[in-house]
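This section describes the prediction task in plain terms. A model, or a person checking by hand, is given the sequence of a single protein chain and must write out its three-dimensional structure as a string of tokens. No templates, partner chains or ligands are provided. The sample shown here is typical of the held-out split.
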Amino acid sequence: MADRVRIYEVGPRDGLQNESVAVTLEAKVEFIERLVAAGLREIEATSFVSPKAIPQLADADELLPRLPAVPGVRYPVLVPNERGMDRAEAAGAGALAVFTAATDAFTERNIGMTIAGSLEAARPVLARAGALGWWRRGYVSTAFGCPFTGAVAPGRAVDVALALLDLGVDEVCYGDTIGVGVPNQVQALVDASTAAGVPLDRIAFHFHDTRGTALANVLAGLAAGIRCFDASAGGTGGCPYAPGAAGNLATEDLVYLLDASGYEHGVRLDGVLEAARFAAAALGRPLASKVGQAGGWDPTTGAATGRRMGLGTPTGSP
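The expected answer:
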């Protein structure tokens, strides 16, 4: 595999969806504009689920048309069903993600249906998106462990990934939803996937840093040949079924690791830090990620880079 890594930014969607502080439409637009300016080219912008289910993302229909049209940038949106697909199409979407999980217990608690039911719900959505020429992703949540049934064998996650590929997704993303995975499990899941015929370049990983293993798991994924990883600027987000847990892998932490390890990715650390600080300010709290606190590091001078004290005041903040 080439030494170029795709960073798939989920901050505007997964990072914000469970936050209790309401973020204004204007602040969301500026957050995404800052992410684009930092060099991110895949930004999961919002979700077309019921506004009652996720009030934070109730403005999805208004947000999408306001995003900057930049060549090479796409804004996937989460779409749960045909009603959501109608809304996404009307709003001008051109890429989407559908979601299911590796255990029935999680899908039933999360979306009120079994894995089989969730796949059937995704079928017409993916078919319609395919007919429109949209890029399509499929999430397999709880790929390492479920908060209701415990450890998940790699084969169970792979079976769901194969079903999603059969439905037409361009990429499957394995999610460590409650942050229990460790590096040897990453390798085992990659091995099981490729043995079942899933190409490496159609696999992505979404790690949560619940127990501090996200970057270690990224390194395991890189060693196994994976070149796409999800991250959230500022490390916001997480799983409501892991109370008190840390959020997603912070984009700035991932960028620092990739820079120091010699991988190309096209994202500027200083730009991500500015976007992450903006998001933290909109949520009314300090930036808590490791690189957000320490800054980057210039190996030629030994100086920390990109550090700045204070929250700042974002335009359109609540």
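For orientation: The chain has one domain: 6-305.
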